[in-house]
Amino acid sequence: MNKLKTSTSTLMLIFGIILPLLTLGIELTTAMCADTFFDPIPTFVHVLLVGAVPLANLWIWKAVSQGDATHLSKLGLANGFALGIAGFYTLIFLPLLPLGAIGIIIYGLGFLVMAPLFSLLTAFTCYRHLKMQRRKVPGVRWGFALALLILVALGLPMGITQLGLHMAAEDSSETNGIRLLRAVGNRDLMLEACYKRPSLN
């Protein structure tokens, strides 16, 4: 396997591994993004998914830095997973990227907003180097599909809860909506909807 250039390796380590881990730690301890914009890690599973990206990048970075292609299939699986998760978070943070660019200039905090993008770029760079070893890297598609499957599974209860809340608010479907919420409704989302409900006074 072709080894990474020193400059590329350093940039990947700083921006694609250390920065995302630092960002995750800051968000867990301060809830900065959750309090200001939205909660990017609402559940423990989300925390694991986000944390898995820099760890996957670290593993692949180490392998390509050493020119080690011993576990290419596993590396491809991890890379596909990192691409899927990092790609998803890059999309949801996309509207904040201009703000992040300004934040870099002013306070340097913009790096935190751009961490998903840096993670994605690092994962893609890892993929390119894995592809130098073999034209079709095994495991990448499976890893990417697994990431999407988990993200869909996490989002499905919230989507169903929103549907149930909408049905419960309609006289014609109120009973079915309540049944749906009792069966699979997300408790936190239902409580949030109750708090946001307009006062009758």
UniProtKB/TrEMBL annotation:
Protein name as catalogued: Uncharacterized protein
Q: Which organism is it from?
A: Candidatus Thiomargarita nelsonii
UniProt superkingdom: Bacteria
The residues that cross the membrane are: 43-64, 76-98, 104-127, 139-160
Keywords from UniProt, A to Z, are: Membrane, Transmembrane, Transmembrane helix
